[in-house]
């Protein structure tokens, strides 16, 4: 360590500090600290000293610099380009409050204002060294080059994002060469004319240091595509504003979703209408015929038609649940269980419902929990004898809640539960009747939960593991 007075003169230097400079401690006293600070580093050191003197209380400040002993040590110009030492300055007071010792028996008086005399401790730099910075830069460059998404580094010049660098993913996704776009306005290449105002808003947010996140349409060399866009601002400390734009191409996913929605709606609408006609005609045939064979055939037609209509209705319910993009809400699982069970007591009078529920169990799933639970309960009731017993148990665990729905029926056919719970292939036989279980799985997993199935001792159990609401964790 060392101590400097109000004039910036070294009035004490430890042997360790002197050894670091390759000089004698006594030879350092009485010389300006600026003599030992490397070229270009003194303004920062002086500013740190002044800040400590002006500060109220006993605050410390840090800075980094190069040090040498001048004529008594290595030349500053031969020192490494990087500051090699960190100095922590703080107001300095002697051990008895009235003076300072130099370790050799000599004493020097302090100014009455203790903030006038400053002590400094030297240590290895706590901030990243040049080698570490180079390593981090290399790691960033590796990520920048290998990531499949399109990444653009740009500088906001005026109101334009001027391209400074692009990764190979950008060239592959957008079809523009790096040399062609570097130094040019990014908007001129990839923003369609009808999205100019949107792009200007994003650029202004970047200039203000704010991040962006949106689904956007952008122009590529092969036409328009849809992207998930993320804009990340950053600063280099040079007074300019920079940013990264990351574009993930989601065109195929969005088009596939749109195609599926259209096909589902058309199919469900046509299926429902046509099957209602078939069902009506089957009933007319049954009423008009006296032939038992014809009556039996018409009855089978009606039964299968009703099955198809139920599958269509389940598909409609599933689509409505999956299209619901609202964020999860806190619901009371206990209230949800009771709301699902009560109307089914009337519909299934021979069934026994055994409930083991806490007074309240808030979970983060939202209203869709009711549809999921209803599918589990319906499955337990519809594919079992009339006098089935359905047990529903809910309890709180450490960070989760569990809902267990058990029945003493024959259990879920293996071809159904294996596809849903064991990642088996979805076969033609499991497309329809297992749809309710798929809805349960999708709803629970979308909320960060898990669905399990178990068959043991004559009982089938579907367990829903759900995240507790934050306030109950």
Automatic annotation (TrEMBL):
Highest taxon above the source species: Archaea
Q: Which Gene3D superfamilies match?
A: Histidine kinase-like ATPase, C-terminal domain, PAS domain
- Cite a single GO MF annotation: ATP binding
Keyword Transferase annotated: yes
What SUPFAM superfamilies does the entry give? ATPase domain of HSP90 chaperone/DNA topoisomerase II/histidine kinase, PYP-like sensor domain (PAS domain)
Q: Name one Pfam family in it.
A: HATPase_c
Sorted alphabetically, which CDD domains does this protein's record hold? Answer: HATPase (cd00075), PAS (cd00130)
User: Which of the seven top EC classes does this enzyme belong to?
Assistant: transferase
Q: Show the catalytic activity.
A: ATP + protein L-histidine = ADP + protein N-phospho-L-histidine
Q: Which keywords does this Swiss-Prot/TrEMBL entry list? A: ATP-binding, Kinase, Nucleotide-binding, Transferase
The UniProt entry, under InterPro entries, shows: 2C_sensor_his_kinase, HATPase_C_sf, HATPase_dom, His_kinase_dom, PAS, PAS-like_dom_sf, PAS_4, Sig_transdc_His_kin-like_C
KW Glycosyltransferase (keyword) present: no
**Sequence ranges assigned to domain PAS in this UniProt record:** 1-56, 136-194
Its EC number(s) = 2.7.13.3
Q: Could you tell me which residue ranges the Histidine kinase domain spans?
A: 266-470
Report the protein name in the record.
Answer: histidine kinase
Tell me which species this is from. Haloferax volcanii JCM 10717
């Amino acid at each position: 360590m060392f101590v400097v007075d109000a004039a910036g003169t070294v009035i004490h230097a430890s042997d360790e500090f002197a050894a670091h400079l390759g000089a004698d401690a006594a030879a350092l006293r009485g010389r300006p600290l600026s003599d030992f600070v490397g070229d270009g580093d003194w303004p920062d050191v002086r500013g740190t000293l002044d800040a400590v003197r002006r500060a109220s209380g006993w605050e410390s400040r840090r800075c980094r610099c190069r040090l040498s002993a001048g004529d008594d040590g290595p030349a500053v110009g031969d020192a490494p380009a990087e500051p090699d030492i960190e100095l922590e300055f703080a107001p300095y007071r002697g051990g008895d409050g009235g003076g300072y010792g130099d370790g050799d028996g000599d004493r020097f008086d302090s100014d009455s204002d203790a903030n006038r005399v400053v002590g400094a401790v030297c240590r290895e730099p706590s901030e990243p060294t040049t080698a570490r910075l180079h390593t981090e830069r290399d790691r960033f460059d590796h990520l920048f080059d290998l990531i499949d998404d399109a990444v653009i580094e740009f500088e906001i010049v005026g109101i334009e994002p001027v391209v400074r660098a692009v990764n190979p993913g950008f060239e592959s996704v957008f079809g523009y060469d790096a040399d062609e776009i570097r130094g040019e306005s990014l908007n001129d290449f990839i923003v369609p004319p009808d999205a100019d105002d949107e792009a200007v808003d994003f650029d202004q947010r970047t200039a203000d240091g704010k991040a962006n996140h949106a689904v956007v349409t952008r122009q590529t060399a092969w036409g328009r595509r849809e992207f998930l866009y993320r804009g990340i601002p950053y600063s280099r400390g040079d007074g300019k504003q920079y940013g990264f734009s990351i574009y993930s191409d989601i065109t195929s996913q969005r088009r596939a979703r749109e195609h599926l929605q259209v096909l589902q709606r058309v199919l469900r609408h046509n299926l429902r209408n046509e099957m209602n006609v078939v069902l009506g005609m089957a009933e007319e045939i049954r009423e008009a015929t006296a032939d038992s064979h014809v009556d039996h055939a018409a009855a089978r037609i009606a039964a299968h038609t009703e099955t198809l209509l139920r599958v269509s209705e389940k598909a409609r319910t599933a689509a409505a649940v999956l299209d619901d993009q609202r964020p999860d809400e806190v619901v009371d699982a206990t209230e949800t269980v009771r709301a699902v069970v009560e109307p089914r007591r009337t519909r299934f009078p021979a069934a026994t419902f055994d409930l083991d529920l806490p007074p309240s169990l808030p979970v983060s799933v939202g209203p869709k929990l009711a549809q999921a639970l209803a599918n589990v309960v319906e499955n337990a009731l519809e594919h079992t004898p009339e006098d089935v017993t359905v047990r529903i148990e809910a309890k709180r665990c450490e960070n989760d809640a569990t809902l267990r729905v058990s029945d003493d029926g024959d259990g879920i056919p293996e071809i159904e539960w294996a596809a849903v719970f064991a990642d088996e292939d979805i076969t033609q036989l499991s497309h329809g009747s297992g749809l309710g279980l798929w809805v349960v799985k999708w709803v629970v997993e979308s909320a960060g939960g898990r669905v399990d199935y178990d068959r043991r001792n004559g009982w089938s159990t579907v367990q829903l593991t759900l995240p507790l609401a934050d306030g109950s964790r």
